[in-house]
Amino acid sequence: MPKVLGGSLEAHRREVRTRVFAVLREQLYERGFDAVTLAGVAAAAGVGRTALYNHFPDKESLLVAFVEEEAARYVDRLRDAVEAEPDPVAQLATFVRLQLRVLAEHHLPPGTALESALAPTAYQRISAHADPITGQLRAVLLAGVDAGSWPAQDVDVVVAMITAALGSRQVIDVPPEQLPEVMETAVRFVLQAVGSVEISGPAPD
């Protein structure tokens, strides 16, 4: 019988996922999705191949589960940070900074683009996790219109444009010491783009 990590089946499941996701994160950003194999992940994580297959029958299901967990944590972090701010201007500035900081911390995996590497259903499950993030942005923009922080506008168009702008790696591909200045430039750009009557200052350290 395989060794149960953590003393219970539920603790074992969490421990396996923690180990496997840590290895997958490293391999994705070092090698790319194409080079990832379940056998390689299992060996690096110190998990039996059979145990890994019991959790994830193929590497697509492993990647989807990994993205789901990462996205859920980030959405909670984003919501808490935005809701802690006192007004829509500060909330939008916080949204911009956090999106860019996370993009800077988590480089896109090298190799084949995930959209072409995954089956359509798997990619749709992954891309669906952008919905809570864009939903948060949409709520902030609508709150700003209601508060008079910026003029009424087609929020769906603005959400798409801001999301595209903040997803560009060219924005944050700078030396680390320049990143804070870049982020504040992006904040000013987005606030001016929506017609903000106030430009938010930098976030406190």
UniProtKB/TrEMBL annotation:
Any one Gene Ontology molecular-function term assigned to this protein's record: transcription cis-regulatory region binding
InterPro entries: DNA-bd_HTH_TetR-type_CS, Homeodomain-like_sf, HTH-type_TetR-like_transc_reg, HTH_TetR, Tet_transcr_reg_TetR-rel_C_sf
Keyword annotations from UniProtKB, A to Z: DNA-binding, Transcription, Transcription regulation
Keyword Transcription: yes
Pfam families: TetR_N
DNA-binding region: 37-56
Record protein name field: AcrR family transcriptional regulator
Organism: Amycolatopsis jiangsuensis
